[in-house]
Amino acid sequence: DQQVKQNSPSLSVQEGRISILNCDYTNSMFDYFLWYKKYPAEGPTFLISISSIKDKNEDGRFTVFLNKSAKHLSLHIVPSQPGDSAVYFCAASARSGSARQLTFGSGTQLTVLP
Amino acid sequence: EPEVTQTPSHQVTQMGQEVILRCVPISNHLYFYWYRQILGQKVEFLVSFYNNEISEKSEIFDDQFSVERPDGSNFTLKIRSTKLEDSAMYFCASTGSSLNYGYTFGSGTRLTVV
Lengths: 114, 114
Description:
By secondary structure, chain A is mainly β. Chain A has strands at residues 4-5, 10-14, 19-25, 32-38, 45-51, 56-59, 62-67, 72-77, 86-93, 102-104, 108-113. Chain A is globular.
């Protein structure tokens, strides 16, 4: 069941340049989207989120874009830093009951080269 | 910064044995979750817990699994009779009333069933 897909398992970018991570989803009931970063032997760390009523949300070096008609979202990191090297997960949520579960993509390994 | 604490970090158990994975969520959070990640696979939802009861559970969360919040601070996941395929990283997470700040995940417990 591939409701959330990250088609690029890995991405390499030079330090200072832009990193663009992509995510596609199929479930039109998703109304909230999140990006997480994960280092080895640690839990996922929340980065940024966006509600389906918006098409852009920005927080410092991180910007998430949502294209609902294409069921596509992307995370832009500008400028990229070596410390950004990690696995990035896209996650989506649909309101169902009192709590919200997240459906994760398979992740993209970002490597920022110095 | 508040964090979700999970113990132990690594648990090795024999097939058929019971294990209890422990979590201390962030104190003022309302929703509690367990997720797991089998090596090389996606992070998968197991169960959500709100107001002292299960809110939702996935099809992975069968009768072998149970959750409990025994004392108002701990949140536990019990696997009654472990199978080899239960080997995975288990992540506890908690969140407040809004997803604006995402979930806060713990560092995980690596469960190895031998």
